[in-house]
Design goal:
322 residues, 10% strand, single chain
Length: 322
Amino acid sequence: MNESMNQFLEEDQEQEIDIIELLKRLWVKRKIILIITGCFAAVGLFVALFTPEEYTSSCTFVPQMARRTNSSISSVAAMAGINMDNMSNSSSSLSPYVYPQILENVDYLRDIMYSKITFNGVTESVTLFDYYTKPEYRKFNLLGTVRKYTLGLPGVVIGALKSKPAETVADTAVSVDGIRLKSFTNEEFGVASIIMSKLKMELNDKDGYITISANMPEPVAAAELVQISFDLLQKYITEFKQQKAQSQMDFIESRYEETKADFENKQLELARFKDANRVISSATAKTRLDKLVSDYNIANAIYLEMAKQRIQAGIKVKEDAP
């Protein structure tokens, strides 16, 4: 028992840290510690002083949500293969979950980069494309220059070896099997990458609002970029709603003509049967009349509902117009 206790105490003493010995070792290495600390402090001070300022601007908005409308005649129309619920909701707004994907659209990014923004020291508003591609608008950034020619030196060398003449904007659309595919030039792709890094859109599922934010080296430029992004997003959503409403209007118009022709045929068939059978005495004739009346009533109900849908679709097209 005593032997095990003594062994435990010896092990415990071996595991203790000698603070005085540790301080002596640090004191001996004090010059190296001070040099390393001073270097890191100098680097931190350099980064803090020469990092360009960034200003953030944002706007918050609540997207328009689709409202579902039901029709009492939907079950009757479904018997004829017509889905009234889809018709009444097909012109609804674009889902807010798709909004962030619009920021990656080629046309959307190109509209932003060719929109004019105000910058300090520039007499007239310039486009983001000119601001990020023309040398006269580039501000000297010591930290960026050091990073470019140190950590980014391999990329600079590779880019210089692979550099090609800039393409024109007219060459950015190619045709494959009759389909025009839109793309960026080399310079446009670089500017688009910068815009995507500075422009953010966040969807708050819980509270139901969307926030667009932009980081720019100047406060006015950040605010204008957010405003331009919001206006373009609103434009794209409005155009989508208009196109969808017009497409639905055309579809309902064609279905309306079909139901109208079917109703008129059922109406004429019923009238002919009544003219040919003024006195109905047999059960077969009575059954035939009941069937014709039933078909006529269903066709009439669907025709009236399609007429109502036609009017509503026309109103929707007018409503979605700017």
